[in-house]
Design brief:
The protein has a two-stranded antiparallel ribbon. 65% of the residues lie in helices and 4% in strands. It contains 3 helices and 2 strands, in the order ααββα.
Length: 107
């Protein structure tokens, strides 16, 4: 575990909001993307084609990259939805006619 991994772990443990957890997971996946090459010592081919119709298939590294990219795209879409919801809630609070009250102090 290196410095960046440790920082991401700490942020992951302390993230409380939906947006925060999504951002931490997205950062963790982007961090893993660059480290995939080092994690695989065996890069055998998977899912080869049938008799001469297709190529030899994709390596484990290519499979992992593709799956990681798909997950990153899903997280980005969910994060955009959360941001849109947050913007809508902010607008609704501004439009509301209810007075705002804040209590400050110690009890």
């Amino acid at each position: 575990l290196d410095r960046t991994g440790l920082i991401l772990e700490i942020f992951g443990e302390r993230a409380r909001t939906k947006e925060g957890t999504l951002q931490v997971e997205l950062a963790h996946l982007n961090y893993q993307k660059g480290r995939l090459v080092r994690s695989w010592t065996h890069l055998e081919r998977q899912r080869g084609g049938s008799i001469g119709l297709r190529g030899p298939g994709e390596t484990q590294l290519e499979t992992d990259r593709r799956l990681l990219q798909k997950r990153v795209e899903q997280l980005q879409k969910r994060l955009e939805k959360v941001e849109v919801q947050r913007t809508q809630m902010r607008r609704a609070r501004v439009r509301s006619e209810l007075p705002r009250v804040a209590l400050v102090g110690y009890t």
